[in-house]
Design a protein that fits this description.
The chain is α+β, with helices and mostly antiparallel strands. Helix content is 35%, strand content 23%. It has twelve helices and 14 strands. The chain has an eight-stranded mixed β-sheet. A six-stranded antiparallel β-sheet has the order 11-2-3-12-13-14, covered by helices on one side. A hairpin with a 4-residue loop joins strand 12 and strand 13. Helix 1 packs parallel to helix 5, helix 4 packs across helix 5 and helix 4 crosses helix 6. The longest helix is centred in the last third of the chain and has 19 residues. The chain is globular. The two termini are 18 Å apart. The relative contact order is 0.16.
Length: 346
C-alpha cells in the first residue's frame, strides 16, 4: 500500500485562516483546474442535463444561485465567505464558485436508468464507501486539509466543493448516499452540511443535533461514526429519521419514507443488489479487517460500478476508507480495482 502524507497524484490543499482566506487558498491552489472545469460545458452540466438543445448558462442560473446563496449565508455564514474567497482565489468570481457547490442540486432528479450512486457502511470503527457519480469526475478529485476554529478535518472534494465526505480530529467520520424524494428547494446543500458538521461537531450525537437544525436543499442519507457509536440518518424535506442500519445504498430504508421514494426502477434494482452484496461481503469480513480488506470489498462488483463509457451514467470514481480513531482518510481514485491506495493523515 502506498502511504504518503501528500498522496501522489492527488492534490492536497491546506485550507487555513479566516473563512475568506481559507477559500482563497483553496481557489488559488486549484485555479487552473477549476477554470478548465467551468469552461467544459459549464462544469459538464450541459452534457448531463436532459435538454441538450437548451443549454443552461450562468445567466439562466443566476436567480437559482441567488436563492441558494441566501440560504447558505443564513445557515453557515463562514462557508458563504469561504465560497466568496474560493471565487476570488481561483479568479472565477462569486457566482461560478457558488455554481461549483450546487451542481447536484442543479441536476435535480435524474429520471434515467442508472446502475450506481454510492455504497456506504460502518464496521468496527471504520467507515467505508464507494463514490459513484456521473460526469467523469475522477479527474476533479482533491483532498482538503481544513482547520476551522481549532478543529482539523480531512475532506474529499470534487471540482471545488468545500465538502463531500470526511473525518475530523475529534474522531467523527461522515459518509453519504443519494436518496431521491421530496421537493428539492433552495437550502443548504448536503455536501456543505457535511463540511459544516466536520467543522463543528465533536461526535455522532452532536452532529445529529446540529443536522436537525439545518434546512437541507435536497434528500440524502448520511452514515456517521465516532469512537463509541455509528448512526444512519435519512433526510427527506424537513424530516430526519434515524435508521437501524450501518449499511446504505440509494433507496430509503425507513418505513416512513419508503412510500415517498422517487428512485427509478432500474436504480432501485441496482441499489437493492449492491446492498445485498455489501452485507454479504461484510459477513465474510474479519472484525479486525485492515484498510486493504475493506478496499477489496469496495472494489468488487456490483459494489464497484463499472464505466459504461456514457458520461451521463454513474460509475465508481473513487473509494474511501475512513479510520476516525486514527484520523486517517484512505483513498483509491477512479476504479478502485485498478488504483493503489493513497493515505492522508491528520
Amino acid at each position: 500500500m502506498t502511504r504518503l502524507r501528500n498522496a501522489e497524484g492527488i492534490p492536497l490543499v491546506r485550507v487555513t485562516g479566516d473563512p475568506f482566506e481559507a477559500g482563497y487558498r483553496h481557489g488559488a491552489a486549484r485555479a487552473g483546474a477549476l477554470r478548465a472545469f467551468l469552461a467544459d460545458d459549464l462544469c459538464r452540466l450541459n452534457r448531463l442535463l436532459p435538454a441538450p438543445d437548451s443549454p443552461v448558462s450562468l445567466d439562466s442560473l443566476r436567480p437559482m444561485l441567488s436563492a441558494y446563496e441566501a440560504e447558505i449565508r443564513a445557515a453557515t455564514p463562514d462557508l458563504a465567505e469561504e465560497i466568496r474567497g474560493l471565487g476570488e482565489g481561483a479568479g472565477i468570481g462569486h457566482e461560478p464558485a457558488l455554481l461549483l457547490q450546487l451542481r447536484r442540486e442543479i441536476m435535480g432528479y435524474q429520471k434515467i436508468p442508472t446502475m450506481g450512486d454510492c455504497t456506504t457502511y460502518v464496521r468496527s470503527g471504520v467507515l467505508a464507501q464507494t463514490v459513484d457519480l456521473n460526469g467523469d469526475l475522477d479527474d476533479q478529485i482533491a483532498v482538503l486539509d481544513v482547520t476551522r476554529n481549532g478543529r482539523r478535518a480531512l475532506v474529499l472534494s470534487f471540482g471545488g466543493l468545500l465538502g463531500y465526505l470526511g473525518v475530523n480530529g475529534d474522531g467523527l467520520a461522515i459518509g453519504l448516499n443519494l436518496v431521491l424524494g421530496g421537493d428539492w428547494r433552495p437550502g443548504l446543500p448536503p455536501y456543505l452540511a457535511i463540511r459544516h458538521l466536520l467543522d463543528t461537531a465533536s461526535g455522532v450525537d452532536h452532529a445529529i443535533e446540529i443536522l436537525r437544525g439545518l434546512r437541507l436543499a435536497s434528500s440524502r442519507s448520511l452514515i456517521l461514526c465516532d469512537a463509541t457509536r455509528a448512526a444512519c440518518v435519512e433526510i427527506l424535506g424537513d424530516e430526519l429519521r434515524e435508521v437501524d442500519a450501518t449499511e446504505h445504498t440509494n433507496h430509503f430504508l425507513h418505513p416512513g419514507f419508503a412510500a415517498r421514494d422517487e428512485l427509478n426502477v432500474f436504480a432501485r434494482n441496482s441499489s437493492l443488489l449492491r446492498l445485498k452484496a455489501c452485507r454479504s461481503g461484510l459477513s465474510e469480513l474479519s472484525p479486525d479487517a485492515g484498510v486493504e480488506d475493506h478496499f477489496g470489498l469496495l472494489s468488487a462488483p456490483p459494489v464497484c460500478v463499472a464505466d459504461t463509457g456514457d458520461i451521463r451514467s454513474e460509475r465508481t470514481v473513487a473509494a474511501v476508507v475512513l479510520v476516525p480513531g486514527r484520523g486517517e482518510l484512505h483513498l483509491r481514485p477512479g476504479d478502485p480495482s485498478r488504483s493503489v491506495t493513497r493515505t492522508f493523515t491528520l
